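Board notes (copied after class):
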Amino acid sequence: MCNFADMIFDKDTAKKTAEVLLQINAIKLSPKEPFTWASGWKSPIYCDNRIVLSFPPIRNYIRETMGKYIEREYGKPDVIAGVATGAIGIGILVAEYLGLPFIYVRPDAKGHGRKNQIEGFVESGQNVVVVEDLISTGKSSLNAVKALKEANINVKGMVAIFTYGFDIASKNFEKDGIRLNTLSNYENLLEEALETNYISKKELETLSDWNTNPSEWNAN
């Protein structure tokens, strides 16, 4: 039986990852003054995991945790693939930790030159694990998987730093038959934020309400 979206590595990892992401403001929670996403959604949370790259101890923790998990669950794949652009940096770090080649996948093929969508060297039939920084609906992540499959590359699964845990993401990954595991998720983030007094119980309620219906949520 295949596991799909929103499966955390383990509870301790989920707690630790949530803790460090909050510490460095890679994740910001602002129920009273929500952010506006590119999609137009209003959101009390904003996540930018690229900030991890600026903190060596934390990026090393994420690199090693992801690397050890991949090796334990998949053995060593032939190649690590990152999803452009957010996961290129962390994907390279994971590939380096494992001593593996690295490629990355663009949202679309370039309109000039060699017109690549997959950048780097990978051969037909090779085994690849995809690295992502953040999962929202899963659309862009699965678009990268589609490009790899169309190149006759065997996608073993995907690992990511964080997921919002939307139902639509779980359905999308299950539909495509892609296993996704993450270091942490929204549920564990809120637990950590409440435990450390980053948010109040009232704010917890607001943040939980948003997660159940993010496209329709209104801060008022």
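Comment from the instructor: The helical segments are 11-23, 56-74, 88-98, 139-150, 167-176, 186-195, 201-212. The mean pLDDT is 93.
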